[in-house]
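DUF4437 domain-containing protein: structure tokens wanted.
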Amino acid sequence: MSRNIPLSILLGSLLSSPLWAGEAPQSHVVAADAIEWGYLNPLRGELSPGAADLWGDRTVDGATGMLVRFNKGFSSPPHIHNITYRGVVIDGLMHNADAAAPPMWLPSGSFWTQPIGQDHITAANGDTNLIYLEIDSGPYLVKPSDEQFDNGERPINLHASNRVWLGAEALSFVDAEGAELALLWGSHQIGETGGALLKLPAGFDGQLSVDAEEFRAVVISGQVHYRSAEQEGSIGLLPGSYAGSKGRFIHQLSSPEETVIYLRTDGQYRLTLH
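Answer:
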């Protein structure tokens, strides 16, 4: 991925090389209607938000991406976490901040980070509320406020209306009119992990050609019809659905409506039309 011309030139050069020689491709797809739900904090039972791992395992030491859902009116007690996490709002209205802060409700497509050790609350105010939550190491634990500490990280709260979108004219690896990318976090150099939102226009029919040790995609809004060499037929992926791959792989996508997808990768990809 690229923010400006120099990185775009680098990526354009890398993507001109053959992508598909080498290891056999591997992919994993999870449709939203096939997700098995548990609790984010099992000790609180039904008082806890629901949770489901899309990839990884939040109970062990490793990176994980999960869905978390909240009832309308949910507000957690003040607490801290043992790790930093990122959140992307899929549905509803979310607030995440110091307990004394006035609510800033974040709608679908908004992004936030919660630093390790910082005291905060999380609240939800939509009729239905669903987020994608991501950690780079685990396990994901909730701890009491009296154990809070400051490691120098600062939170981010990015309302969906404040995203900055880059189109094909700025990105050498986006070759599809109307598609746009908003960078969110991390390094966007090849071999280093970063996250972004990809927006597909209504009527898009094309593919993501990927070469990455780690590539993960979560549908945030809209819908896509998904196909690949490892799938039989087309799969409908609604918000909360997941597709990931390792190595060189082609994800074929079509979107009947405008669709936003969260991407996490340490490699390169190219978006093209059929």
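The mean pLDDT is 90. The CA atoms of residues 223 and 238 lie 5 Å apart.

Cheers.
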